[in-house]
């Protein structure tokens, strides 16, 4: 997985501020929580939720055999 500063999935264009396709787990931390999510394209994401809001701090590429990546920003 790689660190990210993007505001949308680089593989399919889904906005990071939108609802994740699937929440895999949530873990409470001292400052908020960490969420592991999966995007609709299959990309695994680690999200930090704290006083600063929600942000994707790491993500993988889509799982092999998942939906193909689309170029540009998706309008969802």
Can you tell me about this structure?
The chain is an all-beta fold and 76 residues long. The chain has a domain of 39 residues. It is built from no helices and 5 strands. A 5-stranded antiparallel β-sheet has the order 1-5-4-3-2, with no helix packed on it. A hairpin with a 2-residue loop joins strand 4 and strand 5. It is globular. The relative contact order is 0.30. The C terminus is likely disordered.
Looking at this protein, list some descriptive labels.
76 residues, five-stranded antiparallel beta sheet, mainly beta, disordered C terminus
Helix and strand topology:
Layout: E1 2-3, E2 22-28, E3 32-38, E4 44-50, E5 53-59
Antiparallel strand pairs: 1-5, 2-3, 3-4, 4-5
**Rg, nearest Å:** 12 Å
Oligomer: single chain
Mean pLDDT comes to 81
The major beta sheet can be summarized as:
5 strands, antiparallel
Principal-axis shape: globular
Strand numbers in spatial order across the main sheet? 1-5-4-3-2
